[in-house]
Amino acid sequence: MRLWKAVALLNLALGIGLLVGYLWWGREATRLRRETTVTIQAGAAGLEEREWTARGVVRSVIPEINVLVLTHEDIPGFMPSMTMGFRAANPQLYAGLQVGDVIRFTLKGVPPNVTIVAITKEGKT
Amino acid sequence: MTALGLCARWAHLGAGVFLVGTFAFLLLAGRSDRLTVVAWERTLTRWTRWAAGLLLLSGLLSLSYQAAVVTGHPGDALSAATMLRLLGATQFGTVWLLRHGLLFLLAGLILFRDREESGWDWAAFRGEGLLLGGTGLGLLAWAGHAAAVEPGGLAAAGADALHLLAVGVWLGGLLPFALLLRAAGQEEGADARPFAVLAARSFSQMSLVAVLVVAATGIWNAWNQIGNVASLLGTRYGNLLLLKLGLFLPIIALAAVNRLRLLPALSGEAETVGRPAMRRLASFVALEFALGAAILAVVILMTVTPPGRHTQPWWPLPFRLAYPPPHDVAGAGTRLLVGSQVALVGVLGVVAGWFLGWRRRLVVSVAAAVLVAGLGVALPPLTVEAYPTTYRRSAVPYQAASIADGRTIFATHCAACHGRTAEGDGPEATGLRRRPANLTEPHVGQHTAGDILWWLTHGIPKSGMPGFGDRLSEAERWDVVNFLRALSAAGRARKLTEVVEPDRPWLAAPDVTYAVGPGAPRSLKDFRGRRVVLLVLFTLPESRPRLGQLARNYDILQTMGAEVLAVPTDGGDQIISRLGASPRILFPVVTDGAKETVAAYSLFQPAAWIRTPAHVEYLIDRQGYLRARWTPDSGGWAEVSGLLAEIQQLNQETITGPPAEEHVH
Which range marks the domain in which residue A90 is found? Predict the structure, then answer.
């Protein structure tokens, strides 16, 4: 075979290899994107009721709407540390609580509809 | 082991450069059927076979060396499992596989080359060799330091690849060029001389371009990996680069002689003029190649040395240059002006003298003397004493906690002489020959953090300032450096008012780490690029009305992109409980880290040492700079609308400057 033909074939093969690699990469990217979407949707839709326990400090008690505002630590699997309001399952839970109290609280529900179902007082801040 | 690994890398790089250069040179020189040329090509082909073999072998050895390097066990150099993991799971492995696939094809091409029947065959073989070899060489950039630059790795690696390719066609072409010249310079090589002269001319043109590319990409790479003079002079990587440049300069000098003197002498009567010049050119080119091989060895050492940007520089000189002139030398400004102008005249003289040609040597040397004299006048006022640690980067970030610790250490170890307020008037200052420095003056900010560290460690000879290297740990000394820097900033902070100076950030806000009750620890830096922070140092009960006012307006403040961070001056014991239920305060009230924050930020109050005022508020912009300060005795933010106007001002700014430094310099 003539040398230049061999070289041309070689380059063709390299070019095809490059193209195949590029296409494979693209397909892989699409597949990963689809999987991510599926996972996110599954995470959003198909959740069952769960329970979390974390510590927090009481920032405000708003009995009119049955809400406790807490600055809480990270709640693994649910949300990072922040200040926010949580509904209480019943008013007895926060009876006697004061702003600045450090509590251990239990959340129950299907996100984002969770309520505080248990509170134990730990100290003051 | 290491030596063997490095030799393998060197051989790999050298063989790759040689192959790229040879194929490029063969393409450039063109076809010829003269006997000497054909014999030369045959020799080269034989060499390329050896080079291809060496390339693959040294590639394997490099892989096994890398396996030993990444695990740290010399025994893993022969472990197939480690090598497979290296190939499958690292960027080094991917690049290695890609490159060796291409190099394998290249070796096949060279070994099983068929007879060349036409011009197509001729060009196809050489072109393919250049393509495969060049890609294989250029891809090396993605396995080196350049690919690790963050961000902009692609541009850096691209520049490095271009650097490698240019080195390949230029340095690699020197060897075939020298061989051709030698063959043509011999008695019986007369038939190849016209071919050699033409090849020499084209190669000279091409290598000029290649050297320019090498220089440009080299500067770009050096900027990425080294970035400043201190790292160039003070780190191993920087010194290796200097060595590389030191080897590069004689090559350039040789190349200039070749281009300006020998190249014109090649043409003309081949029998009389050309041959001696050709033979001299051959040996000069071979010398260039030898120097080039030495440079490649230095490059290999650089591949196993951490880049200068990422190591602590050790400044080798007893002085450094600083602008503006740091000392108040009489007439420094005039000297600088006059000297720089004289030096400029000198530079112009050198350039003009070189090109004019009239009494070149005399004119150039006089102009050079003028240049040196000009620099001699201008530079001395700019020189400052420097120490090995002058360009050290602080190991401890500029944080409130560090400043607070530094403040305590200062009170125990330094206040006796420097005074409780650091003005150089401590009780023991009177017994000293020289008055201790007033550390609240602006000159402190002109020294590098490394300078201050050096004085803290080793003292200042003949001044009475002792060294604390044996009494304070390095972290503690950095704490003191951070405190002194904050103190110097505090002096300038007197100018802060409750009005934001538009677009003029100049005072870095020390970072603060804090927590609210059991909430996760956060830092001021978390708000960078996201929120303006109103840092409120408060005392109960005086601050209660103000906190209530802020709490009522918290939703507006948040809507405006601001966060409020309230820090109790009394340490914060049960502070949230003491604040009580009404008004409803929902912004972060610091319970952990309050003491340090107050210790650091109280320095930035109008009368830092006299008292800790009951209430002070600081506005910190999204870049991490302190922009405004308010105390209740000035009107300003007493109405929240005044505060909102300043926040709005910060919101309107287009961010141009760099974020505030996390480390002092």
Answer: 50-124
Task: Say whether B114 sits in a helix, a strand or coil.
Answer: coil
Q: How far is CA B364 from CA A9, B355, B367, B369, in A?
A: 59, 10, 5, 9
Per-residue pLDDT at B429 exceeds 70: yes
Q: What is residue B90's three-state secondary structure?
A: coil
Instruction: Give the number of residues written for chain B.
Output: 665
Question: What CATH number is associated with residue A75?
Answer: 2.40.50.320
d(CA A37, CA A31): 10
pLDDT of residue B273: 54
The count of domains in chain A is 2
Q: Nearest Cα to B460, choosing from B433, B422, B486?
A: B433
B428 C-beta neighbours (distance < 10 Å), count: 13
- Residue A125 has its nearest CB partner, among B120, B577, B585, at B577
Q: Are residues A17 and A39 in the same domain?
A: yes
pLDDT of residue B190: 83
A10–B128: do the CB atoms touch at under 8 Å? yes
Contact assignment for B117 to A56 by CB distance below 8 Å: no
Q: Can you read off the two tokens belonging to residue B251? A: 């090559």
DSSP state of B599: H
For the CA atoms of B115, B119, B123, B126, the dihedral, rounded to the nearest 10 degrees, stands at 30
B 513-542 residues inside an 8 A Cβ radius of A:
516-520, 522
- Nearest Cα neighbor of B87 from B53, B60, B55 is B60
pLDDT one-digit tens code per residue, B632-648: 888 889 899 999 999 99
Q: Within an 8 Å CB–CB cutoff, is residue B123 touching chain A?
A: yes
The pTM assigned to this predicted structure is 0.77
Co-location of A104 and A78 in the same domain: yes
